[in-house]
Amino acid sequence: MSKNKSSESVKVVVRCRPLNRKEESSGPVGGIVQMDLRLGQVILRNPRASPSEPQKTFTFDAVYDGNSKQRDLYDESVRPLIDSVLAGFNGTIFAYGQTGTGKTYTMQGAWLDPEKRGVIPNAFDHIFTHISRSQSDKQYLVRASYLEIYREEIRDLLDPNHSSTRGLDLRESPETGVYVQDLTSCVCKSIKEIEEVMNVGNQARVVGATDMNEHSSRSHALFLITVECSQPGPDGRKHIRVGRLNLVDLAGSERQAKTGVHGERLKEAAKINLSLSALGNVISALADGRSGHVPYRDSKLTRLLQDSLGGNAKTVMVATLGPAPAHYDETLTTLRYANRAKNIQNQPKVNEDPKDALLREFQKEIARLKAQLNHRRWRSKQKKEQVDCEDWGRDSDEEMEDEEEAVETETDDYVKLEEQRLEREKEAITEDQFLLVEEKQKLLGDLRKEQEATEQLTAKYKAMESKLLVGGKNIMDHTNEQQKMLEVKRQEIAEQTRKEREIQQQMLVQDEETVELRETFTSLQQEVEAKTKKLKKLYSKLQCIKAEIKDMNDEHVGSRQELEQTQNELTRELKFKYLIIENFIPPEEKNKIMNRLTFDPEEDQWNFQPLVPAQSKFSQMKKRPTSAVGYKRPISQYARVAIAMGAHSRFRAENIMFLELDMCPPNPSSLDCLAEAATNQTPSQENSPTRNRDIHKSSSWCQSSKSIPFSSSNNSLSACPAALAKGQ
Ligand code: ADP
Ligand code: MG
């Protein structure tokens, strides 16, 4: 991959945990991992190989052995990344390795022991200490989210209902790249608050898991921190920088045993490591640089980490190893994986003034509330003045009234009209006075309401403002100068060590290249010796590479066999399903179903299309069938006869069906009675339901010349006269 100016490679560090008690007691073999901290090299010994076989050596940005401290790893490899996030870059740290090798220990560690606090709690300290020490013209907004990916489903760990709802969806925007839709994000104002968020999420993880170990080694956990910082630029305007930090604790990288797994279990196994194998493919494609297509879309994890791998982010990968000989194969795979990741090039850039910065919205909201508050204060001040004025007005009115009363007593003998006029005026004034008191009370009530609203507004304003962290304010416990100095010194040392290692590595490479140039041979013998030495060196190198090729081949064959096995299992299952479909589902039904199915690559599943497409709903609606041409509704034989006979119009549309229900011959007495009834029938009685209550006649009897086409219906008698007339 071509390097451009702003590109930088993914930093890869390797950490090996100490042998645990069980491993120590299992044999005197010791660890298989050796580390050269100065050179950043890992030397792996194959416990099954002969001692003459050369050991495998890998070089990384930094290596940490079993004696390493959490703080060392943080200061040297993580601190620069968090500083970049605070400056507005995207940053990712992910821990990769076999289950039980210390991924969670590295990322989280033991929170209560300051010596054993992992990357995440140290990052919290770092971020909030940085904010407290920054200049007072800077404003910060820190948000945190926590999610896990389990069986290719994204779960929001801060949502209390996450276990009952279906997984969240991924979306992509040109501004922020790939993001999780509807993910809870909590504004955090202090270390305590962000730790609380982490605890809530961790508890949700535990509750969601039936078997914590199984679950945690099969799920990927992502803690996301967004730090927005607003600072006045040289142009006098406030500029916002947004840094996003992904802290990822991946699932165990070991291969899930697939042998003997069928059906649902097989699918599950395939899904569990889908994200990890997709991650491997993405890393290979990026490291290779030749293949244009990077399969980010193959899994949720790779889509989420799209920016972190080959995109706009600075990335640190911590590969964790176990030193036990029993896990040699897995350790080698992890080292190869990590070695490949070193070649990935990212293009990090500062996210300046993005449209979706929440800080900008908060600032706008605060400014709005502030303006509203000022306006209210000014208004209430004015109202107070108004009320005071009215109080003064009322006093003067009272004085006037007193005066008038005095005038009234002195002029007892005034003319009646004058007295009445004064009386009216007095009433008016009294009324006016009431009005004033009422108005004053109303005004006071309004004032009280206003005051309450103002208090509410002030509280809202303060709450909103408190979400923003202002640089320079002491938001953490007091950190004295000495401590600050100590930290700076520690950083300097870490920086120094890193540089030293880089120089050592460069020197090693150059040494090999220049050794030939520096050598001058005084005699032929000397030259032969030197050349033999070099030949030996090159020969051992060749052996190493040959061994490497053999290993790769073995690994390739192994994974191919595994894939073949999975393929066979899946083919067997497919054949089984086909058998059922071909033999038990009618072909036309099968075709109907197949025509309705569409594949959604976004969701990675087949969906049913609706039966009737939404737009053509109406065009597809069938018309109501007409049963007889020229008639509004279905018409029976009886109605047709009635129409033909010109019977009473009332019965023309009667729909009486002849149903062959009664198969036994009619009783002669009932027939006589029937005939009698029929002859006595007058047109006015035609419809009498009481008259034919006992008549039961099936249509099959209508065929005889004397028969009468009756039915059990109430209206059947209407046919009698016609039928009888026909019969006679
Ligand atoms: P993983 O998350 O990779 O499955 P853990 O982080 O749970 O593994 O580690 C497994 C065990 O090993 C834990 O008991 C942990 O305390 C211990 N451990 C891991 N790394 C170290 C280390 N560097 N130093 C000491 N103990 C460690
Ligand atoms: Mg773990």
Automatic annotation (TrEMBL):
UniProt KW keywords: ATP-binding, Coiled coil, Cytoplasm, Cytoskeleton, Microtubule, Motor protein, Nucleotide-binding
One Pfam family named in its UniProt record: Kinesin
Residue stretches of biased makeup (Acidic residues): 396-412
This protein's GO CC annotations: cytoplasm; kinesin complex; microtubule
InterPro entries: Kinesin-like_fam (IPR027640), Kinesin_motor_CS (IPR019821), Kinesin_motor_dom (IPR001752), Kinesin_motor_dom_sf (IPR036961), P-loop_NTPase (IPR027417)
PROSITE patterns the record matches: KINESIN_MOTOR_1, KINESIN_MOTOR_2
Descriptive protein name: Kinesin-like protein
UniProt-recorded Gene Ontology molecular function terms: ATP binding; microtubule binding; microtubule motor activity
Family: Belongs to the TRAFAC class myosin-kinesin ATPase superfamily. Kinesin family.
Residues engaged in binding ATP: 97-104
GO biological process: cilium assembly; microtubule-based movement; mitotic cell cycle
Domain (Kinesin motor): residue spans on this chain: 9-344
Main location: cytoplasm
Organism: Oryzias sinensis
Subcellular locations according to the entry: Cytoplasm, Cytoskeleton
UniProt feature, compositional bias: Low complexity: 698-728
Skewed-composition ranges (Polar residues): 678-690
